[in-house]
Amino acid sequence: MGYEILEKVIELTDSSEALEKRFDSLAKSISQSLSFDQCAIYLFDEERKIFSLSAADGDRNDLVHTYHDGEGLPWSAIKKNRPIIANISDVNDGRWRGIKDNGLLGFATAAVYPIKDDTGNYGMLYLKSRKKKIVPLRKRKLLSVISLQIGMAIKTNECILNLTSVNTKMRDMQARLIHAEKLLALGEMAATLAHEIKNPLMSIGGFAKRLSQQFTKDAPERMYADMIVKESKRVEKLLHGILNFSTNKGFDLKDENISSLIDDTLALFEDEFKRINIKIVKELKGNITAVKADAEQLRLVFTNLFTNAMQAMENGGILTVKTDCVEKWITAEVTDTGGGIEPSIIGNIFNPFFTTKAEGTGLGLAIAHTIVANHKGMIEVMNDIGKGVTFLVKLPALVQ
Questions:
Q1: What is d(CA 362, CA 211) in angstroms, rounded to the nearest whole number?
Q2: What is the residue-averaged pLDDT of the chain?
Q3: Does residue 388 contact residue 338 with C-beta atoms inside 8 Å?
Q4: Are 63 and 150 in contact (CB under 8 A)?
Q5: How many Cα atoms occupy the beta-carbon half-sphere of 127 within 13 Å?
Q6: Do 206 and 97 share a structural domain?
Q7: Domain check: are 29 and 95 in the same one?
C-alpha cells in the first residue's frame, strides 16, 4: 500500500495541472489510502506569517482555514522543527498538551507534517481521525516522504512562475530595445530628410502658389496648382513631425502645474470640439503637486492626445480629462468615447509612422511617447473595445 500511494503522490505532483487542482486530488488520495477522516494541505505565506488552507478532503467540520503566527499544531510543528503525532484525550476540548487548536475539535488523533526543505517552509500536511489510531513507523516515514514530494511540487511551481515572470520582462525589454533601435534609425533618417527634402519642397510649394495666381478661379490649371500646394504642405507637416520626434533640442525644465497646462491646451480646441459636438468633462485638481517639465513639450503631448480623441469621435462624444497625484506620480487621464482601438493593432500605436487614418502621419502618439519618456514618465493605455480608450500619462511628482 505504501508504494501505491507514493506512486500516486509522485504522479500527481509531477502533473501539469494547476497546483490547486493537484492538491485536491492529493488530499483525497492520502486520506483514503491512509484511512484518515480528514486530510488538509496548507500553504505558508512568509510575508503574512500564516498557513492558509489550499485543499482538503473528508469531513470538513471544524476545519480551520487560516492558522496565524503561533496558532495550533501547525505552528507548534514549525517551532519543534519536526512532525507531530497527537492523541487527544478529550475530543471536545480542542487541545493537545496545552496547545489550543480549534481544528482538533471532534478528533481523537492528528498527524501534522511540515512541508519544508533546507531553504524554508512551504506549508503543512494535516491529517485527522475521529477515532484513536496508531500511526506506525512505516506510515510516519511514508508521510515524511509525501511531505517532501509536495514541497518539491510547490517549489517547482514557484520556479515556473518566476521563470514566466522573467520571460515576460525579457520580452518587454526586447520590445523596448526594438523601439529604441527604430528611434535611432529615425533620427538618422530625419537628418537626411531635412537636407534633401526641405529646400526643394519649399521651392515646389512657393512656385506652385505663384503659378496658381496666374490662372482664373475657374481654370482647371489653378486646381492642379492648388493641389500641388496642398500636398506640399502635407509633406512639410510630415517632415516637421519627424524632426520634432527625432531631434533632441534639450528641455527647458521648470516647475509646472499640469492641471493649468492641460486647461490651457484644451482652450485651443474649444471651437473645434463644439463644431463636431464633443462634450468636455474636466476633473482637474487645482492644488496638485508640480512637475519638473518643459511646458511647450507637454502641451505637444496633450495636443496629440486631444487630436487623436477628436479623430476617434468625429461624430461627437464625450472627452473626459482628469488629473491626480498618486503616490510619487502626477497623473493625467484622457478618455474618449470613440469606440476603442482594435486589439490587433494596439501594440503598434506608439510606433512611428503607424496609422489607420488616411490623412495621418503616424507620428502623434510616437512623439507623445518620446516626450513623456524624456520626462522620466510613462504612458499607459486602457482600451475598452466598443466604448472608448483612456491614455494615462504619469510624470514624477516634484519633490518638495
A1: 32
A2: 83
A3: yes
A4: no
A5: 28
A6: no
A7: yes
In a domain, 175, yes or no: no
> 339 and 357 share a domain?
yes
Return contacts of 16-21, CB within 8 angstroms, 24+ apart. Answer: 19/54, 19/153, 19/154, 19/157, 20/54, 20/55
Cell numbers describing residue 86: 497527537
The residue type at 211? L
Q: Which three cell numbers stand for residue 204?
A: 515646389
Distance from first CA to last CA of the chain, Å, rounded?
Answer: 70
pLDDT tens-digit readout, 291-324: 888 888 888 889 889 988 888 898 899 999 999 9
Residue type, 67: Y
Q: Is pLDDT of 279 > 90?
A: yes
- Name the band, by pLDDT with cuts 50, 70 and 90, for residue 192: low
Number of domains in the chain: 3
Name the region of 11 (left: φ>0; alpha: ψ -120 to 50; beta: rest).
alpha
The answer to whether position 181 is within a domain reads: no
93 and 72 in a common domain: yes
Q: Which domain holds residue 341?
A: 254-396
CA 304-306-307 angle, to 5 degrees, is 60
Within a domain: 168: no
What pLDDT is stored for residue 121 in this prediction? Answer: 87
pLDDT at 167 (0 to 100): 87
Which of 51, 90, 31 minimizes the C-alpha distance to 100? 90
CATH number at residue 22: 3.30.450.40
At 342 the three-state DSSP class reads: coil
278-283 β-sheet, strand order: 278-283, 317-326, 329-335, 388-396, 378-384
Are residues 6 and 154 located together in one domain of the fold? Answer: yes
The winner for highest mean pLDDT among 326-335, 337-346, 363-372 is 326-335
Pairing of strands 378-384, 120-129: unpaired
Q: Is 77 a domain residue?
A: yes
Q: Are residues 277 and 367 in the same domain?
A: yes
Whether residue 145 is found in the same domain as residue 79: yes
Decide: helix, strand or coil at residue 129.
strand
* Residues 105 and 32 occupy one common structural domain: yes
Please tell me the distance from the alpha carbon of residue 374 to that of residue 294, in angstroms, as a whole number.
10
Closest CA to 54 of 131, 199, 153, 176: 153
